[in-house]
Design brief:
The protein is mainly α. It has 3 helices and 2 strands. Strands 1-2 form a two-stranded antiparallel sheet. Helix 1 packs across helix 3.
Length: 76
Amino acid sequence: MTKKPAKPKRDPNVCWCNMVAKSVIEKAIKDGKTDIYDIFEVTNAGVGACGGSCRPYIQKMIDQYLETGTFPEKPR
């Protein structure tokens, strides 16, 4: 019997306007960008045509990382 290959983990977009993936925002936070404006500057997340509807999700990621050292499984 042949074993099925594991499905690759999804890397969902947090910011749909600028197509910024969760992993990109996580890396920025791990690199010390723990202010939402720093995240905007280095990733372009949160400054799209929608007016920043993803900002609460980005803030949630920052807050959880600072509190627990982990990120939400599904930030959106």
